[in-house]
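seq:
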Amino acid sequence: MLGAVAICGGVMAASACTGISLKANDGSYVQARTIENANEPLPSEYVIIPRGEEITSFTPVGKNGLTYKVKYGVVGLSVVRKEFIAEGMNEAGLSAGLFFFPKYGSYMPYDATKSAQTLGDLQVPTWILANFATIDELKEGIKNVRIVGLDKTAVVHWRIGEKSGRQVVLEIVNGRLHFYENTVGVLTNAPGFQWHVTNLNNYVNLRAGSAADERLSGVTLSPLGGSSAMLGLPGDATSPSRFVRAAFLKATAPVQATGFDTILLAFHLLNNFDVPIGIEHPAGQVPNMPSATQWTSAIDLTNGKVYYKTMYNNAIRCIDLTKIDFGNVAYQSHPLDREQRQTIEHILIR
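struct:
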């Protein structure tokens, strides 16, 4: 059992994620994100967890941690194992997801005498979704658990949102919990969330549209193309650059009429964060897979729908929580792709 848990370290250590959130004119609230791994394909599944299911958390030594019964039905997208939900939502409209947080996060040490209160970091989203309907409930309930790392190289932080549009970031540093209200609506990876928000001040000149002509040393300077006012927006794949780019694209995105329109917009925005596999490795050492961005999800918290697409198939798929009987459905998981190939619509000309 421990060996199965430990494999997450080598995989998750190469992960990167970009998250955004958007609101629609009809009040719908959407949270979307990418998940990356540049070393190898991540085994990924969608997971259905019914009410009443009993779950026991892993600890660094096995499956002997916190045991609880599921209060709210859950739909999640997992990585490596079905127990490790990286992004998901419950039937109450609460969402939770994990984002890689290397070198900056640090958990409590594992204490074998307190295994019954111990929760593995990669299972925190499952525990949140199974037990809480609001962020305030979570902030109270988390006081009773000890979160520990299942692998030293897989430190994460978490994004939690509710359908009211409120969103928080949870980080654990030196064993202490820190909740941050996320009014920016963006999350990436290290450094810490507060650092990223402060770093936005370095891009105070960015704005939508085009820059005006200017005179400099007797020469008229004119924009060479559209969107010149965003000149200087970072385009690389590092976490600080992705945070700035995501914040700018989110802030300038037009508000859509409905939740579904907003879901589609979220996918378009996150296309800007697809990481080509070739930039991650020296020539000749590139793994045989289409992309470092393994899958992208968009969740409509208001209308109870989880959407996703993968590096193998860009067709958007949807799981509607309102059509699931969480009192009777079985606990189950299935690969995100039935077949790892892109579906193509062939146009017949007659």
